Structure prediction request, 233 residues.
Amino acid sequence: MLVEYARNVVGDAAAAHAELDPDAQDAVVVPLVCSLFGERREVRAVPGTRAAAICGSDPMDGFHFCGYGLAGGWVSRLVAAGLVVSGYAEDGSVEIVELPGHPFYMASLFQPQVGPDGAPDDAPLHPLLTSFAEAVAGHRAGRARA
Amino acid sequence: MTGPQVAVVGERNPGHRSHVALDRAAARLPEGVTASWVATDVLAANPDRLARLDGVWMAPGSPYRSLDGALLAIRYARERGVPLVGT
Prediction:
């Protein structure tokens, strides 16, 4: 989603994902300094954002399975083009981005589909996913009216 | 008319813990929402499939088989106001 935004909204047609294009000079998505395969860390939503409206601003436990993240040098360019950083890890790295004005546009580094270790299969869904489903149902209702 | 439909965009790998968890979560989405996987290369070859969707869930597990297919889905959802989540 970051590559798409960088290419089509920021307008940098060469914006790359370093996993696909390891030689890219100015990749949007780059290898994390410390890869996060199977790691958990605290994620905190930024007050006033949609993520905070959905999840609250208390720290959340976030499961990660990924070795790539948003390049630090790209954050200001994406923000200048309208994206909002709405969640951070404790070390200040970006965990959630969202697009204001869109019915629901949310990308997370952590994986809300993976609940706490040992959680039962019927444990409550992460609120980000519940809110997504509500937006999906709202979209269908809007189409039905159209 | 069937209920609201979400495409889970990506290449499903049953050995991938994140995908197993995604399937389990997707099966429990409220509001009668149902989700089904669409591979990125299938989407790239059949972009008309996007028109029937009420939501797009970009699955983890890069690199995608077709970056173009993934970007197509993301752009479509962003521009048309279709709910989009990337985990």
Remarks:
- The longest strand of chain A covers residues 29-45.
- Chain A has a mean pLDDT of 93.
